[in-house]
Amino acid sequence: MAISETTYFIKKIKNIFNKWTLATASIILVLCLPLLAILLGLLTGAGNTWDHIQKYLLLEYISNSIYLIIGTGILSSLIGISSAWCVATYNFKFRAYIQWLLYLPLAIPSYIMAYAYVGFLEFEGTFDNITLNTTSGLDIMNIWGLIFILSISLYPYVYGSSWVMFTSLGKKLWESTSLSGITQNKYFFNIALPLTLPAIFAGLFLVFMEVLNDYGAAKYFGINTFTTGIFRTWTALEDINSSIFLAAILVVVIVIIQIINRFFRGRKSYSINDISSNSQNVRKNIKGIHQLLVLTICLFPVVIGFIIPLLQLLKWSMLHISSQLDLFLFYLSMNSILLAFFTSLLIVLVALLLVFLPRWSKNTYMKFLTNFSTVGYSIPGAVIGITLIAASGYFVNYFDYIFNLKIGKYIFSGLALLIFAYLFRFISVAYNPLEANTLRINPSIPESSYLLGKSKFFTLFKVEIPLLKSSIISSSLILFIDLMKELPLTLILKPYNIQTLAIKAFEYADDERITEAALPSVILILIITTIILFLSKYSKVKAY
Amino acid sequence: MELELLGISKTYNNNVCAIKSLNYTLNKSAICGIVGDSGCGKTTLLRIIAGLETPDNGTIKVNNNIVYNGWINVAPEKRQIGMVFQGNALFPHMTVKKNITFGIEKNNLNSVNKLIELFSLEDKINRYPHELSSGQMQRVAIARTLAVQPKILLLDEPFSNLDLIAKSKLRTEIKKIAKILSITVFIVTHDIFDALDICDEIIFINNGELTETCSSSDVKNLSDIKLKSYLKNMTDQAKRFISIIE
Tens digits of per-residue pLDDT, A315-361? Predict the structure, then answer.
């Protein structure tokens, strides 16, 4: 009996630890290195300025971050949910265009939005001129102003997720409830909104993460948040240990937010039985004052979130176009595009491996461990950047001490560290949709290929990737947008000789040369807008 | 090609026992029907034979060569076993021709043309799976599996979702092709009449256990009382229908 049990155990181990398990474990281990470094920061403790931070700064970091999260959460939900409901429920003029225009504020990074609005509303600014100098300007460089900027910049996350859910609620649900005499208002608050809550929370979670990730806008407005605090502790106080300790605390807070999010979702079922295209919402035709009201609700976010800041930036761009429109600007644009393009390809490739290797290994633990390697999106770029600088410093010193090898110049002067940081932070942007869409492929399809004598890689390239084509393209484009806009990570980890549009815009603004920041910002916005409009067209093309 | 299953057991992670110590030998070029209720382990058994699932215990031999015994585990792509899945699993982004030729070398297209002819698919080769009827899709799936000349063919519920005429046509085609290619076939079905029509041998599975084995001509001598009463009931119903038609 004992022998047979031992044999059974050995056979089981042999089946679990195959080459795919080892490959998966290696990728997960590499991707989890920044996470391990952050958690080690908690264990090793803070540096010598920690007492000062704790006494004078920490409370401000915490309270400001909480105000920003709550304020931005409420305002972006109001804008996102109301516009999503109107677009999903009513038929009105230009609806087909407006449903995509509502995404456009995503094209403007929040720090650029902040520069534009300060210029627009300042004394003798554009708004003051329009109103014939009657306003004496409007000071928005305070926490309320930052909440406004972040909300109009980030509401598309809530809009996108709730619009998809409102649209897929289905006409049967509305018809069955309206037959029981329920009004549309009651239907919205008692049926549609509760069913859409998980999607709204998912969108809000992204908003929270972006608020915590924001560095450029908060620094420009002079609001001390956790992220600006982490930067300041590293640069001004020159205490990298306290900086990492702060970062580790922030990561713990994010984990708590995630747990709360899951707790609120609980065990309720939010699934909708019939989401086929022919069962989608039948939109109600509206006219007259009702149409005007709905148009106002939907166009207001586009005007304040895209058109006003873009016009302000265009106005400033005209001031410097003759001096700035040169080869250097072309070089900056190409740098940004190439860096974002190749990095997004690399991230999609690694995400595909992370989706398929655990499946091939048939090891359920690998699937579980993969979750840890995709938490990067929840961790602000500044946290990842500073942690990687510190961890790489230890790594370089270790190699120097043990092997007498000077590898510092290779690590810090090249792009490898920055690209690895992008990979860690953005892997989930590609992994989550690819994983979800892979689950929709009938497992018998790849299995048929195996039984026809084809290898796993052959099947991946000839069968599974073509079936995931639309998901791969849309993930790559979303990654491209994220990478083009990214600021804190690039700011910390970029080699000194590499410049991007986002960095140049930030540097001009940081030097109080705000009007000169406009042209690189406009080019950045135009590139991202093109991608968003392409995505909107592409998403209409049905997969097989 | 002879297939031997020796002491095959499979338990899933949630302690659900799918197959319990199953022993069975199928001779060369025979058609065997696996009959049982839904969830009794029929499909799991096919997947274990194909190598898509790993049994907890037991040995699988094909022509006296071990393909699985815990230490040896020949990969599905190397077992030379073909399987047609329930729901056919055609590649949706490929035409009928691309589906059928997927597994073969480019210089081996003659046999494919014969298969296309055998299954009367000549005028469908440039269509995509979603442009075919259920019966046509099932025939493409079988042709695709046979194109790579497997030694053993596994068919998982090949007649489900087919109307009576398509079902009857496919049964005749399977019988004919198994004879022409002298191939060993396993058919999983929950309908005993499908099995009686085309199988040489029928095995009955209940809760993962092989409860009965018999040849299709010998089915009236079954010892399982429940199965006997079910067969009697079905035969009475068939007789009633015949009397109505006549």
Answer: 998 888 888 778 888 888 998 999 999 999 999 999 999 999 998 88
B23/B62 same-domain check: yes
> Do B133 and B157 have their domain in common?
no
Q: What is the spatial distance between Cα A448 and Cα B193, in angstroms, rounded to a whole number?
A: 27
Separation of alpha carbons B191 and B194, rounded Å: 6
Could you tell me the domains of chain A? 17-37+325-499 (1.10.3720.10), 47-315 (1.10.3720.10)
> Chain A partners of B85 at a C-beta cutoff of 8 Å?
444, 447-448
Beta carbons of B92 and A467 less than 8 Å apart: yes
Q: What is the ipTM of this complex?
A: 0.85
Query: Residue B203's CB: how many other CB atoms inside 10 A?
Result: 22
Query: For A129-143, how does the pLDDT look when each residue is reduced to its tens digit (9 = 90+)?
Result: 887 767 667 888 899
Q: Where are the alpha helices (DSSP H) in A1-105?
A: 2-16, 19-44, 50-52, 58-89, 95-101
Binary contact (B71, A544; C-beta < 8 A): no
CB burial readout A78-105, b (16+ within 10 A) else e = ebbbbbbbbbbbbebeebeebbbbbbbb
**pLDDT tens, position by position, A441-467:** 889 999 999 999 999 999 999 999 999
Last residue of a domain, one of B102, B128, B149: B149
Which domain, by its residues, includes B122?
94-149
Are B122 and B13 part of one and the same domain?
Answer: no
Which of B149, B174, B190 marks a domain boundary?
Answer: B149
Mutation target vs A (from B102, B108, B160; most A CBs, 10 A cutoff):
B102
B148 contact A CB<8A: yes
A3 interfaces chain B, CB cutoff of 8 Å = no
Long-range contacts of A324-331 (CB under 8 A, 24+ apart): A324/A516, A324/A519, A324/A520, A325/A519, A329/A519, A329/A520, A329/A523, A331/A499
Q: Is there a single domain that holds both residue B73 and residue B102? A: no
Q: How much is the pTM? A: 0.81
Closest Cα in chain A to B145: A452
- Which chain A residue lies closest to B71 (C-alpha atoms)? A11
Domain count, chain B: 2
Is there a contact between B83 and A467 if contact means CB atoms under 8 Å apart?
no
Same domain as B158, residue B74: yes
Residues B18 and B50 in one domain: yes
Residue A355 Cα, gap to closest chain B Cα (Å): 19
